[in-house]
Structures are given as C-alpha cells and as structure tokens.
Amino acid sequence: MFNVIMRAYDWNDPTGTLQLDRMFYYTDQELAARFSADGRPLLDQLRAFPCLFIPEGRGDEICRVGTVTAARITGNEVRYEYALDPDVPPMTNGSLFALRRQLDMDQHRYHFDWSTNHWAVKDVDLYRFLLRNVNPRRMRPSVFNIPEHEAIDPNLVSVMMPFSPGFAGVYEAIQAAAAAVGLQTNRADNVWEHHTVIQDVVNLIDRARIVVCDLTGKNPNVFYEAGIAHTLGREVIMITQSEHDVPFDLRHHRFLPYLPNGEGLAGLTEGLRGRMATLVGR
Fold first, then answer.
1. Lower Cβ count inside 10 Å, N or C end of the chain?
2. pTM: predicted TM-score of the whole model, two decimal places
3. CB 104 within 8 A of CB 122
4. Residue 187: CA atoms inside 13 Å, Cβ hemisphere, count?
5. pLDDT tens digits, residue range 260-282?
6. For residue 280, what pLDDT is reported?
7. What pLDDT score does 28 carry?
8. Burial of 220 (0-12, 13-18, 19+ CB in 10 A)
C-alpha cells in the first residue's frame, strides 16, 4: 500500500497543502471506504504507508519517495509535513509513467490522474516495485558522463553500426522492424549534442530500451559500444553478416546472422521484429 500526493513541490519546503475534496481521487472505492470515517480521511492510518510525492506531468518532472510525517484537516484543506527517503533516488515522472500499470496509476483513459492535484491510495507494494524497476545511484565513469539516475525512453531503439554508406540498407531493415512494434530508431551519426562522439554514443545507449549492435567487420567501435550497452544493463540484440565477426567474449550471447541482399535484409527485419516484440511485450 502507498499514498500518491500529486501537486507542485519545492523540495526545500517539507510542508504541503491539498484541497480536502481532492482526497481519494483515482482510488478504488473499497480503499477509500477503508480509510475514511464520517466522510473524512483517516490521516493517521494513511501516514503509516510510504508516499510518492509527485508533481503533475509525464515527462522530465522530478518525483520523490518518502513518508507523511504529520497531517491534519484545517477547514477545507489537508495540511501535511513530509520527509524524503534518502535511500531512494529522485526519479522522473516519465520513467514511472512508462510503468504506470504496475503502480495502478492508469485510472483515467486520458491520463488525468497524471495532471490533477490529488491524494490517492494504491494497493501496491511501492518498495518492491522500486527494487524491481529503479536502479540505485550508479558509479560514474571517467572517460564519459552518464546521468546519476537512468531516464530510459521506452520507445527508443539505439543502433550501433559502422559509419559507412554500405550499411544504409541494414539500418533501413532495423528501422522497419522497430516500426512494426511501435518503436523508433536512432544512431550516433544522426546525433550531435556534445563535442565528443563518444558522449553522444553513450547518451544514445543510456536512453535506449533496446540496443542493436552490428558486429559485421569486427569494428572495434561497435565492440566497445556493445560492451557499454551490456554494462549499463540494456537489452542488446547483436547482428552480423558473419559469425566469425563475433568476438570470443560475446559468443555466449545469441546473435542474428544476415546476408546483405534483399532477401537477407527482409529476413533480418523479420527476425528483429520478433525479438523486439518479445522484449517489449507487443
């Protein structure tokens, strides 16, 4: 069980107010009845549960986990104090929105439960959810930078392949596979956000839900990028025109072989489509 208090937050101010009539918005009726008496919320009982403190929005807004330490009803308002859990890192709304069904935060078909100030109660083990889905703070490398906390785009497939015109058809085959399951692709030579290529590559890998690596030609850059993707815990799909191009330390991973002709690329699209569909559950 956990509380959701959605409103604007100043994380330096550990107090908040909410209109009393916003209590139990987007909450199952059985739960609302259990934690109410004489039409008023049983705040002392609700304080026993952890709380997701979250602003409105479904993007880069920052949300936190903690507890309500004090709460009282004053007139038509609920006034409360809260403390943040220092062991749970800040998260983005977008990362939780992608997993909203697991949090029972998908109560409105137009997602008004992500754009309305309210206090809800959810019959979900919040800390178990966090343990399974939210990584702790990460060690920071020195060669390139990664954000302290992940911000994965659930629809992004990042493609690591040699920078060569000869691979244009291969990239089109990957694009077709991704589009077939509702995903979008990008590759490093389409991105210029930083002064160094490696930083753009790492950012692309770090944001991706799936990373496709073409090992054809034993390109050392692609090997390096595949290693980064595995280290960051991404779902990696390896493809190659020759099994002999797969290095020894990666041969225990499955890969998709293909031929660089029309029939071979069509087969690559179909093989990738099936694997991507499995990974995203579509």
1. C
2. 0.51
3. yes
4. 18
5. 999 999 999 999 999 999 998 75
6. 86
7. 93
8. exposed
Which residues sit opposite 146 in a β-bridge?
none
Rounded to whole angstroms, how far apart are CA atoms 33 and 15? 26
Taken in order 8, 14, 17, 23, the sign of the CA dihedral is positive
- The beta strands (E) that lie in the chain are given as 2-6, 15-19, 36-37, 40-41, 50-54, 62-74, 77-84, 91-92, 118-122, 156-160, 184-187, 210-214, 235-240, 255-257
Instruction: Domains for the chain: give ranges and CATH numbers.
Output: 2-134 (no CATH), 153-281 (3.40.50.450)
The candidate with the shortest Cα–Cα distance to 68, out of 16, 138, 111, is 16
Whole-number Å distance between alpha carbons of 18 and 118: 7
Instruction: Write phi, then psi, for 259 (nearest 5 degrees).
Output: -110, 145
CA atoms of 183 and 84, how far apart (whole Å): 35
Burial of 6 (0-12, 13-18, 19+ CB in 10 A): buried
Residue with token string 């807004």 = 61
The series of mean pLDDT values per 10 residues for the chain, 282 residues long, is: 94 93 94 94 94 94 94 96 89 92 88 92 90 63 56 90 90 97 85 58 90 92 87 90 85 89 96 94 67
Helices 197-207 and 220-231: crossing angle, nearest 10°? 40
Rg (CA), the chain: 23
Which stretches within 24-141 are classed as H helix?
29-34, 43-46, 93-97, 126-133
pLDDT value of residue 195: 44
pLDDT of 156 reads 95
The CA distance from 128 to 213, in Å, is: 32
Q: What is the pLDDT of residue 188?
A: 73
